[in-house]
């Protein structure tokens, strides 16, 4: 009974989120639909685990090639999911299927390995060799070598795909920081949290691959830890993925010839950019985007980005928010009783949290402390 509860937990969680995500997701939301498909793969993987660790070897016989494929598919699918969130938006067979070639290859390879055995030998292979009771030899060597190769590839995949996901997120943050002035709902911080949890699960997965499932076969205590880890991870991924809103895609700007600028042209563009912010105060526009700035200047996004990145040594969001901070600070200096909501509304910030954060970044003290300093100075003047 205890073993069944331990083993059924990740199966149930994956099945629950598969239904929720597939049935309640709009087809236009590519990442959310694909996450439902990811949960289907996870469901089949842990259902295979369930039969194996419950000693249902005759049923598991039909699941073992599927187990090999699904275990090798979860990390590539997680990577594809993050790609859909950060750059690709919709799943493309031509673009994304290449990441699933290895799982498909090993699925076919595992089937070939089983076909090399007759039916009684297949059962003996699963019940005796895969459980660690007998050492592989003779005709069992072919399917066992395929099994070992799959484990080695799995460990490599964990390392490679976790690195690829981190690189995707890093590039995404750089890109949106150079496009939007308000990162609310676009920063995908929850994916970073999910990534940490996925790393913890990766350690458990690697341990399972190194020591082999036979190490956990008759030990409920050892089974409990990976079950809790995988169930928790699947639930959090499902919950966060269900609540996620696909970030708004970056708008394409009007195409302008992208030629090298002369130094005089760069100085001119820099002066016009300063004028746009310091005189026209374009930073007061909420949710200002770099394309909005380009349209006002009648120039190319690449040129504006290069000026901000190289001349001012910052990205677009920092460039805009420094002006918003100065505006908010001037308002507060003029009237220390100005509420944070008023500062947010009058300075172009997207949220009160952005105002609080800007004081911490640019003034090196909290907004509350800065306000108290002003009030203290005001009392001193009155005396």
Give helix and strand order, one letter per element, not per position.
Answer: HHHHHHHHHHHHHHHH
Q: Which structural class should the secondary elements be placed in? A: mainly alpha
Q: Stretches where pLDDT falls below 50 for ≥5 residues? A: none
CATH second-level architecture of the largest domain = Up-down Bundle
Helix content: over 70%
Integer-rounded radius of gyration:
28 Å
Features:
383 residues; mainly alpha; Rhopdopsin 7-helix transmembrane proteins; elongated
Can you offer a commentary on this structure?
The mean pLDDT is 85. It is built from 16 helices and no strands. It has 383 residues and is an all-alpha fold. The radius of gyration is 28 Å and the shape is elongated. Helix 1 (2-24) runs antiparallel to helix 2 and helix 5 runs antiparallel to helix 7. It folds into two domains: 2-243, Rhopdopsin 7-helix transmembrane proteins (Up-down Bundle); 263-382, Arc Repressor Mutant, subunit A (Orthogonal Bundle), CATH 1.10.10.
């Amino acid at each position: 009974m205890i073993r069944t509860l331990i083993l059924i937990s990740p199966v149930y969680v994956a099945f629950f989120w598969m239904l929720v995500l597939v049935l309640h997701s709009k087809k236009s939301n590519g990442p959310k639909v694909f996450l439902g498909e990811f949960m289907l793969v996870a469901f089949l993987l842990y259902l295979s685990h369930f039969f194996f660790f419950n000693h249902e070897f005759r049923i598991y016989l039909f699941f073992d090639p599927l187990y090999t494929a699904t275990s090798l598919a979860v990390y590539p699918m997680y990577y594809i999911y993050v790609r859909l969130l950060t750059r690709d938006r919709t799943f493309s067979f031509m673009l994304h299927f290449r990441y699933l070639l290895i799982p498909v290859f090993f699925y076919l390879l595992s089937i070939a390995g089983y076909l090399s055995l007759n039916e009684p030998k297949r059962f003996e292979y699963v019940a005796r060799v895969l459980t660690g009771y007998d050492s592989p030899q003779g005709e069992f060597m072919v399917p066992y070598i395929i099994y070992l190769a799959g484990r080695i590839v799995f460990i490599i995949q964990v390392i490679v795909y976790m690195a690829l996901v981190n690189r995707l997120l890093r590039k995404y943050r750089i890109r949106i920081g150079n496009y939007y002035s308000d990162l609310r709902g676009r920063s995908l911080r929850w994916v970073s949290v999910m990534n940490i949890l996925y790393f913890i699960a990766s350690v458990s997965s690697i341990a399972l691959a190194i020591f082999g499932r036979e190490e956990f076969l008759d030990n409920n205590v050892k089974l409990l830890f990976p079950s809790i880890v995988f169930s928790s991870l699947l639930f959090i991924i499902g919950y966060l993925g269900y609540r996620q809103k696909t970030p708004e895609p970056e708008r394409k700007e009007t195409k302008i010839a992208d030629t090298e600028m002369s130094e005089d042209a760069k100085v001119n563009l820099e002066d016009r950019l300063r004028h746009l912010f310091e005189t026209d105060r374009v930073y007061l526009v909420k949710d200002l985007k770099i394309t909005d700035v380009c349209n006002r200047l009648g120039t190319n996004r690449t040129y504006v980005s290069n000026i901000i990145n190289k001349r001012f040594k910052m990205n677009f969001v920092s460039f805009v928010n420094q002006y918003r901070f100065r505006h908010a600070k001037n308002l507060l200096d003029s009237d220390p009783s100005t509420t944070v909501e008023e500062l947010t509304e009058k300075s172009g910030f997207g949220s009160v949290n952005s105002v609080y954060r800007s004081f911490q970044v640019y003034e090196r003290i909290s907004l509350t402390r800065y306000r108290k300093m002003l009030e203290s100075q005001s009392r001193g003047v009155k005396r």
